[in-house]
Amino acid sequence: MLIELSAFLIFSLSPAKDKLERDQYHSALQAFREDRWDDGILLMENFVKTYSRSDLADNAIYWMAQGYLQKNEPGLARAELERIIKVYPKGDRAKRALARLQILEKDSKP
Fold it and tell me: Which option is the CATH number for 35-110: 3.40.109.40, 3.40.190.10, 3.40.50.450, 1.25.40.10?
């Protein structure tokens, strides 16, 4: 009975948590769509801190890197891209982060 109740509570709470997670991510994404780079970066960082195990965490960090590039802060963008590769090497943004790092490296050479 206790196991069944625990399973019920887990399953009944998960959709609300998932919705909150998606809502927080989409709120941060909206800031980027509105060119509010500082807000977007802050919201995405908060998302990653709260949902570090989310499938969207590497996407959030990638958006942070994009925000830093828009703000002409390539060093911070590079750090975020490296963070993706280090923390989420199997994430769906790892290859894209590596490619973006290579472009940044080319662009920084005279």
Answer: 1.25.40.10
